[in-house]
Amino acid sequence: MVMPGILPRAKALFASGFGYLAFLMANVYNMVRLLPPTHPYLNPANIGKFGIRHVIAEAANNLVVDKKNIDQLLIFSALLISIVLLLVQIILLVWSVVFQPAMAYSMFTITTPFNDLAYMLLDSVFGVPNMFNSCVAMAGLCPNALAPSPAFPTPFHTALHSLFQYYSIGMLLIGVLIFLYFAVVVVVETAVSGAPFGQRFASVWAPIRLVVAIGLLIPFNYGLNSAQYIVLYAAKFGSNLASNAWIDFNSGVAAKSAASGGGFDNANNPLGEHDSLVALPKQQDASVPVQFMSLVHTCAYIQNLRKPPTPPFVGSPPTNYVTDTSAPIRPYLVKHNYAFLSDTRPYMEVLPATTHVEALDFYDNGDIIIRFGIYDPVLYKNEMGNVYPTCGDIRIKVTDVSEKGQGGTVGGPDYILERYFSLVKQMWFNDTRLRDFGVRIAGLNMQSAAQYACTVGCGPADRLPSCTVVAPLINAPCGFQMPAADWKQDVTNGYQTLFNNFTNIAWYNYAISGANFAIQAQIIERGWAGAGMWYNRIAQVNGAFITAVMNTPTIDAYPKVMEDIRTENRKSNSKVSLENQFRPNLSGEKPTQISGGEEALQLGTALNAAYEYWNKGGANMADPEKIIKGNIFTDAINMMFGTGGLFAMRNENLHTHPLAQLVGLGKGLVESTIRNMTIASVSAFLGGMGAAMDPHSALGALGEGMGKLFASWAFIGLTAGAVLYYVLPFLPFVYFYFAVGSWLKTIFEAMVGVPLWALAHLRIDGHGLPGDSAMNGYFLIFDIFVRPILTVFGLIASITIFTAQVRALNIIWDMVTNNIAGFNDTPNFYTVIGPIEFKRAEVDQFFFTIIYAMVVYMLATASFKLIDKIPDGVLRWMGSGVSTFSDINQDPTESLTKYAALGGVSVSQQISGTAVQTAGQLGRMVGK
User: How far apart, in whole angstroms, are the C-alpha atoms of residue 222 and residue 228?
Assistant: First the structure.
C-alpha cells in the first residue's frame, strides 16, 4: 500500500494503449462470427483485462477451416498478418535507431566544429569543456585571429561554473524540501481520504515527475545540473541542424550550377544567380589621359630635338623618340626605395612587353605611377627613382588585387587595371596621331623643330605632319597649322569607344565568371551563424569594380616646366584662370622667370599651346554623360550629386539585382562627395588666396562662394551615399547577427531558468509529465533547438521576397508614373492616350526615380526584418504563448540607419565646413 509502484505504473503507461487495440480486434472477429456476441472480450468494462494474444487465441479456437467459412479465414489471416507487420516495423525502427544512426548522426553533427561561429560564441560564453570544441575551447588559432585562444576554460568561465553550481545546489535543496513536503501531504491525504496516496495523486505521472524534478537539479561536471546540460545539448543539436540545412541549401545551388554547364545560370552563391549581382558602371571620360599623353609626346619630341642631347646621350637626335632606346625621354616606374619592400629597385623602365602584373609587383600592389623623364643616378639622385619628371607623371590607381593577373578570364577590377595600363602604353608606343600632334605643336612654336621636321619630311595624314615620310619628300613644304577641333574629337572618340568596350567586357566576364560571388568555404565552415556574412560581398565586389572603372589614368604631375610656370604665375597673379595657368608670358611683355632659361620657356610655350588647344573650344566631345542623356538638367544633377546610378536603376542596370542597384547608386553618391569636397577645398583655397592678395577681388569672393556651394552638395551626397553603400548591404548581416545574439541570450536565460523549470515538475496533480506548470519550459527548450534553422529560413525568405518585390515593381512602375497626369503610352479598350503635354518631363522623371529608389530601400528594410520576425512568430503554430528575450528586442537597424543618416548630416556638415574654412585660411596665408 505504501510502495510507490513505479514498475506497475510504467507497465500500465506503455501497455494500456494495446488494450483498446485488442478490444477493436475482438469486435472485428465478432463481425465474422469468430466470437459470440456475449463474449466477455466485447464488454468495454473488460478493456485492459485481456491482450491481443488472448483475442487471437480465442478466435483461433472458434475458426473452422472450410470453404463455407472463407470470410472468417480471410479476416483472421489479414489481422494476423497486420499484427506481424506491426511487430516487424517496431523491431526495424528500434534497429535503425540503435544500430544504424547514420542519418541522425549526419543531421545533428557537423564536420567543422573548430571554425563554427555559433560554437565559438557558446564556448566563449559558457566555457564548458568537451561540449562544443570550437577553436576557443581547443586553444587554437581562430580564423582571422592574431594569436591562439587563451587556456580554456578561462578564469571567468571557472567563476561562472562556480556560480551555476552554487545556484543549482540551492535549487536542489529547495526541491528536496518540496519533495519532502509532498511526501507528508501524500501520507496525510491517504490517512484522511482512505484512498492510496490521496485523491489528488496522479497515479502514473506524479512519481515520475517527482523523480525527474530531483534528477534535473542534481549538479554534474563543471557545476552544471542535468537541466542545464539539456539546454546546451538542445542548442548544440539545433545549431548543427541549422548548419547542415545551410550547407544543404548551398549544395543545392551548386548542384544546379554544375548542371547548367556554365553561362549566366552558373552561380555558386546563396541567391542562385550572379548575372544580376554586378552593376554596370557608367563609362568614364577618356579625354584626360588623351590630353595628357599629347602633352607627353610634345614634350618628348622637343627634348629629343635639343642639341647637344642631354648627357649622357651623344650624337644626333634619334629619328624616332619613342622606339629608340637612346632617346632621352623614356617611361619609367619610379618609387622611393625602402628596405621593407619586396622589390627594392628604385626604377623600372616600361617596355612594350611590360605587364600590369610586373608593375604591381614593383609597387607592392600600390598605385602605378608612370614617369616620362630622364634617368640619371648622379644628376637626379634626389628625384624619386633617379628620374627627372621632365614630361610629367600619370597615375593609375589600384583598387583590388585579389585576382591579380586573372582579369583576362574573370574580368572585373584586374581587367580594368590591365586595360588602363595597356592603354597608356598604347598611347606612348603605338599612337602615331598623338606623336604627329607633338611634331606639329613643336613646329609651330619652335624654329629648330620646324626646320628639323621639314628636313625629315611631312605629309597630310590625319591633317598632321608625318615623321615617317622620307625621300623624295625631303624639304617638302610642311604647311604647319593647328589641327581643327574635329581632330581632337576624333582622337578622343576613338579612345572613348575603347573605354566603353573594355568596361562592358570587364562587366560581362565578371558577371559570367561568378567567382567573386561564389560562397567561400571559409563562410560555410562558420556554420549557420555565419550565413549573413556573404551578403556584404555584394557591396564589396560592386564597390571594387565601380571604383576600378572610375579610377581612370589621372595626371599626377604635368611636365616639370609647366609645373614651374604655374607656380610662378600663381605667385604673381591672383586672377590666373585654369586655361591660362601655364602661359609663360601671362603678366604681359615680361616672360615668367623659371629655371632652365630660354630653352625652358620655349618648351613651356609649346606645351602651353598644346594645353590651350585641348582646353579651349570644348575640351571633350565624347563625354558619355552627354552622349547618353543629352539633357542639361539631368547632366547637371549627375555632375553635382553623382546620380548616374539613379537613372541606371531604370535603364542599363534594370537586370541587376536590387541590392546591387542600390549599392551602385550609393557608391556614385560617395564618389561625388569626395569629388565635391575636393572642388570645395580647392575653390576655398583659391578664393582665400585671391582675397588676401586683393580684398576687393571678385575672384576671391567667387572662389569662397563656390567652395561653400560644393561643400553643401558634398554632405547631401554623403548622407544618402553612406546609408545606401555602407549601411544597406550590411543590413542582412546585422539582422542575422542580432538574431544569433538573441538566440544566445535565450540560451543564457534558459541556463538560469531551467532549475526553476525543474521545480515546476514537483506537482502531484495534473496530467502528463509536464503537469500544469512545466509545459512552458519544454516550449522554451524547443525554441532554443529550432530557432537557428528558423533564422536561416528568415534570411532566405527576406532576400527572396525583396528580390521578387522589386522585380515586380520594375514591371508596374512605368504604368504608375505615366498615368499620374493622365498620359498613357499604350492605348487599349479601357484607356485613351492623353495629351502629350501630360507626359512626364525630364524633371519629373528625375524625382520619380528618386521616389523609386526610396521605395526600393523601404522594401529592403521591411524584407530584412523577416530574419528575426519569422523565428519570433513561427512557434505560435504550436500553440506556444511563451516569450523570450528576443521578443522584446528593438529593431537594431532602425537605430543604425537613423544614426547613420543623422551622423552623416552632422559629421559631413562639420567636415565640409571645417575643410572649406581651413582651405580658405591656407589660401589667405599663401596670398599674403
Answer: 11
pLDDT of 2 over the 50 cut: no
Q: Is 262 domain-assigned?
A: no
The pLDDT, as a whole number, for residue 515 is: 67
Q: What Cα–Cα distance (Å) separates residue 306 from each residue in 315, 321, 451?
A: 11, 12, 12
Strand, coil or helix: 40: helix
pLDDT confidence band for 275 (50 / 70 / 90):
low
**Angle of helix 117-126 versus helix 731-759 axis, rounded to 10:** 50
pLDDT at position 243 is 92
Whether residue 223 has pLDDT greater than 50: yes
Pair 711, 912: CB distance under 8 Å: yes
Same domain, 306 and 453: yes
Q: Which of 67, 100, 133 is the last residue of a domain?
A: 100
Domain count, the chain: 3
Whether residues 461 and 603 share a domain: the answer is yes
Q: Would you call 229 helix, strand, or coil by DSSP?
A: helix
Instruction: Please give the Cα distance from 11 to 300 (Å, whole number).
Output: 104
pLDDT band at 259 (very low <50, low <70, confident <90, very high): low
In which residue are the cell numbers 640619371 written? 376
609 with 746, same domain: the answer is: no
Measured CA to CA, the distance from residue 530 to residue 740 in angstroms comes to 9
What is the maximum span of the chain, computed from C-alpha positions, in angstroms?
A: 138
CA distances from 549 to 246, 560, 653, 761 (A): 35, 28, 16, 67
Structural domain of 590: 287-485+557-622
Cβ-Cβ contacts under 8 Å for 392 (sequence gap 6 or more): 292, 295, 296, 299, 371, 372, 555, 556, 557, 558, 559, 560, 562
Question: In sequence order, which residues have a C-beta less than 8 Å from that of residue 44 and are 6 or more positions away?
Answer: 23
Contacts (Cβ under 8 Å, ≥6 apart) of 602: 302, 445, 446
Q: Which residues have a Cβ under 8 Å from the Cβ of 552 and sit 6 or more positions away?
A: 284, 285, 286, 288, 289, 420, 499
Which residue, of 80, 100, 120, is where some domain finishes? 100
* Residue pLDDT, tens place only, 545-564: 888 888 899 999 999 999 88
> Distance between CA 72 and CA 64 in Å, rounded?
9
> Please, are residues 126 and 157 in contact by the beta-carbon 8 Å criterion?
yes
The pTM of the full predicted model, rounded to 2 decimals, is 0.67
Pair (614, 734) in one structural domain? no
659 within domain boundaries = no
Average pLDDT over residues 752-767: 83
Percent share of the chain, pLDDT over 70: 66
Same-domain check for residues 617 and 736: no
Residues 735 and 877 in one domain: yes
Across all residues in the chain, what is the average pLDDT? 74
90 within some domain:
yes
- Cα–Cα distance between 256 and 719 in angstroms, integer? 40
| Residue with the larger pLDDT of the pair 547 and 474 | 547
Residue 807 lies in a domain: yes
The pLDDT, as a whole number, for residue 846 is 60
Q: Do 503 and 214 touch, CB atoms closer than 8 A?
A: no
From residue 330, alpha-carbon distances to 321, 334, 683 in Å are 9, 12, 35
Grid cell for residue 519: 560562397
Question: Are 602 and 751 members of one domain?
Answer: no
Return the HEC string of 718-787: HHHHHHHHHHHHHHHHHHHHHHHHHHHHHHHHHHHHHHHHHHCCCCCCCCCCCCCCCHHHHHHHHHHHHH
Rounded CA-CA distance 201/208 in Å is: 12
pLDDT value of position 79: 82
Round to whole Å and give the CA distance between 853 and 858: 9
Q: Does residue 426 sit in the same domain as residue 297?
A: yes
DSSP 835: P
